[in-house]
Write a structure and sequence with these properties.
414 residues; alpha+beta; Rossmann fold; Dna Ligase, domain 1; 14 helices; 21 strands; 30% helix; binds adenosine monophosphate; binds glycine
């Protein structure tokens, strides 16, 4: 379920699974339609989704995006006995409510930024004294990457708080600013057993050199070398496993993939945030490297059998993806721009995952902010970079743009 580049990558890999019979996608996109039968479904209509699952005897539902998870779609499908890859409403609060996650961390002693939960402007202003000059202000709920302000001066923090409370009371978290390189760790959980599922580094700002506004992600590569095996073990033991244990003990077990956004501080890994699904475009690079039968693995996760299957395996190659976005993204993107050259881009092993695309009179056109994720592999970051950018050059998308420095940080640091 879903319609973005993440779901195209999942569909592409699921379609290669020897254990798969039929793949349906809802609502899908033209790229996904190359691997799956599109189900004409309103995915916000849970009853229609459940009816479809029952009528077509679906054996596993994989939910891509966070919104339906936070809405309880996984619970509604599980209620008819069908396995679902994705957490229920209660466990999805790890992404749906920053305050919920911070309180869980406090209860379990999980390393994260020191914080206050606030509900009013005065309450928010009152805690600024506690943080010196820098702090981070976060709206509580789902905000598609737009609800966070990292303020480096008191004036910036006050302006962000004024903005947040311009239309009345809202829940928010004010927290300490952490410093260090960021990395994303992906972990499968069947409710009790966990299995690491790779790491990646995202590029959130729209412009080269990490400039301009935040986006959903303009590119990524995997693995993230900054997350050494030792740091990964610490993050699993100190952050992820206590979280999974806490939810299991509360009777709301976490089933699906948990995406931990980590800051690798001088004191060790600390949790920045959780997402309750794969990252987009991090999923694209993970799927390029995963070598197993994805349908079998996700079914094992969804049926509580993770302990009985081999640990997920990945190729040693680096995968790197460059997002091609539509003019004016992350503002209102220009749609309807023609796209060609995908076959040429894929001729040498790159894969072009489609995100915001549509077919208009048989012509592929842009239909969203992030339009394509051009993905390639190589023996190291520079090789993957060369392969991905060579493929980008073959794509003819005159109203699109992309960052030219995806992976550059890894090359400089590593
Ligand atoms: P989030 O939506 O929570 O991932 O936040 C978006 C981005 O804001 C993160 O990827 C970080 O770069 C930054 N950020 C969030 N929280 C903090 C923090 N406590 N300290 C420093 N940077 C942060
Ligand atoms: N690329 C960041 C995210 O999926 O949230």
């Amino acid at each position: 379920m879903g319609s973005g580049g993440r779901e195209h990558a999942l569909a592409w890999k699921l379609a290669q699974s020897p254990t798969l019979d039929t793949l349906f996608a809802a609502p899908g996109n033209p790229g996904i339609a190359e691997h799956a039968t599109i189900a004409e479904l309103d995915v916000t209509d849970h009853r229609a989704v459940v009816d479809f699952v029952r009528r077509h005897r679906v054996g596993l539902v994989v939910i891509g995006p966070e919104a339906p998870l936070v809405d309880g779609l996984a619970d509604n499908i599980r209620s008819i006995g069908v396995p679902v890859f994705g957490p229920g409403r209660e466990a999805a609060k790890l992404e749906g409510s920053k305050g919920f996650t911070k309180d869980l961390c406090a209860r379990m002693g999980i390393p994260t930024a020191r914080y206050f939960r606030v509900t009013s402007k005065d309450g928010a202003l009152a805690c600024l004294d506690d943080f010196g000059e820098a702090c981070v202000i976060k709206a509580d709920g789902l905000a598609a990457g737009k609800g966070v302000v990292v303020a480096t001066t008191r004036a910036e923090a006050e302006a962000a708080i004024a903005d947040l409370y311009a239309h009345g009371p809202v829940e928010a978290v004010i927290e300490e600013m952490l410093e260090g390189p960021e990395a994303s760790l992906f972990v499968l959980s069947d409710g009790t057993t966990t299995a690491a599922f790779g790491s990646a580094q995202d590029h959130k700002r729209v412009g080269d050199g990490d400039t301009g506004p935040n986006t959903g992600g303009m590119g990524a590569y995997s693995p993230a070398a900054v997350l050494t095996p030792e740091l990964e073990e610490r993050a699993l033991g100190e952050i992820v496993r206590p979280t999974i244990d806490c939810l299991a003990a509360s009777g709301t077990p976490y089933v699906g993939v948990l995406y931990a956004g980590l800051m690798l501080t001088a004191d060790g890994p600390k949790l920045i945030e959780y997402n309750v699904r794969f990252g987009d475009p991090e999923c694209q690079v993970l799927m390029m490297r995963y070598t197993g039968d994805l349908a079998a693995l996700l079914l094992a996760v969804s049926e509580g059998r993770l302990a009985d299957v081999p640990a997920p395996e990945f190729s040693d190659d680096v995968a790197l993806t460059v997002v091609m976005a539509a003019e004016n993204y992350p503002g209102t993107p220009r749609t309807g721009g023609t796209i060609a050259g995908i076959d040429a881009a894929q001729a040498e092993g790159a894969v072009v995952f489609q995100a915001g695309t549509a077919l208009k009179d048989g012509q592929l056109v842009s239909a969203g902010g992030r339009v394509l994720a051009v993905t390639a592999t190589g023996t190291d970051v520079p090789a993957a970079q060369r392969a991905a950018y060579a493929a980008v050059e073959k794509v003819d998308f005159p109203t699109g743009f992309f960052r030219r420095d995806i992976g550059a940080k890894a090359v400089i640091d590593g």
